Amino acid sequence: AGGGFVIAPALMSAGIRGILAVGTDLFHIFAKAIMGTVIHRRLGNVNVALAITFLVGALVGATVGGAINRVLYETSPVLSDAFITTIYVIILGGLGFYALSDFLRARKQESVVAPHSGKSEGVEMGGLPKRLQAVNIPPMIRFDEGLVPGGRRISAVFLVLSGALVGFCAAIMGVGGGFLTFPIFVYMLGVSSITTVGTDIFQIVFTAGYAAIFQYAIYGFIFYTLAMGMLLGSLLGVQLGAMVTTVVEGITIRGFYATAVLAGFVNRAFALPGKLAELEVLPLPRSVAEVLSQIGIWAFFAVIGVFAVWVIATFFSNLKTLRRGSPSHDR
């Protein structure tokens, strides 16, 4: 994912206005996703047909979302911040807890059914993906040929509709849409975790790039020096993260996702009461709002710290495998 669900809450916690945090984060994600796409394309994780079809809807959604954000900011900066924070709490909370329960359930099933069956790529499907893939509305897009015998197919209609939703949320929340694309691809459309990771990064280049330039940059809502600073850290982070995906199970990637999303949720959940108090919607003393905000900040870094330690520990524990060359995914 582009990481906006982590960066935007962090920037807002530092006192940056929501709309500026959104625009800056989109610009940073756009540049970072280019690096990630190059790496994942080399690893064979990118399905171009899936991404391009998805983008048809994403660009339309991003246009609508960006327009709504600007109108709210022009009406009231405080209202804009409260709106963005509320959207974060609702979406990240729902996705985070669902992904966490899915990860724990999958881990439990794996240990009971096949504890030593080898590397799983996260290709298992639930009932909804099976039903959607059974709908034969042309054109049909094929994917996961190297992971599933004969591959799988999904109607382009579902991809376009999914893209519109992701683009809309991406433009409002200042993210590349990856945090939404991942669960939509994996839990709704039935795309493997491995293919989803690379394809998601590829679509983010265009979704975040379009939203950053045409919905925020031309209106002056990007802090460029801040974005450049974040990109310097991304030079290392993107490469390390992409390499880790070659040595972990697809189920583990779902665990990574759940942890990172919940970090953003915790941060914004504790900040929301203060935002509502500023709007005089919630009667809350300023001192209490500040305490809650501080709790959210510390909790955010604690959860994202767990995520970072988990990924880095995984990297070093598989260093010998990585030095021998990235293992294939049986493509």
Verbal overview:
76% of the residues lie in helices and 2% in strands. With 331 residues, the protein is mostly helical. A two-stranded antiparallel sheet has the order 1-2. Strand 1 and strand 2 (152-155) form a beta hairpin. Helix 9 (224-244) packs across helix 11. The chain is globular, with a radius of gyration of 20 Å. It starts with a helix and ends in a 7-residue tail after the last helix.
Please supply descriptive tags for the structure shown above.
331 residues; mainly alpha; 12 helices; globular
Q: Report the major sheet.
A: 2 strands, antiparallel
Average predicted confidence as pLDDT = 81
Stretches where pLDDT is under 50 for at least 5 consecutive residues are: 115-119
Radius of gyration: 20 Å
Strand portion:
under 5%
Measured between the Cα atoms of the first and last residue, the distance is: 23 Å
The ordered string of helix (H) and strand (E) elements is HHHHHEEHHHHHHH
Number of helices: 12
Shape: globular
Looking across the biggest beta sheet, what order are the strands in? 1-2
Specify the structural class. mainly alpha
What's the count of strands? 2
What level of helicity do the residues show?
over 70%
Topology:
Elements: H1 4-13, H2 18-43, H3 48-75, H4 77-113, H5 127-134, E1 140-143, E2 152-155, H6 156-173, H7 178-189, H8 193-216, H9 224-244, H10 250-278, H11 286-317, H12 319-324
Q: What is this entry, summarized?
A:
The protein is built from twelve helices and two strands, in the order H-H-H-H-H-E-E-H-H-H-H-H-H-H. The chain has 331 residues and is mainly α.
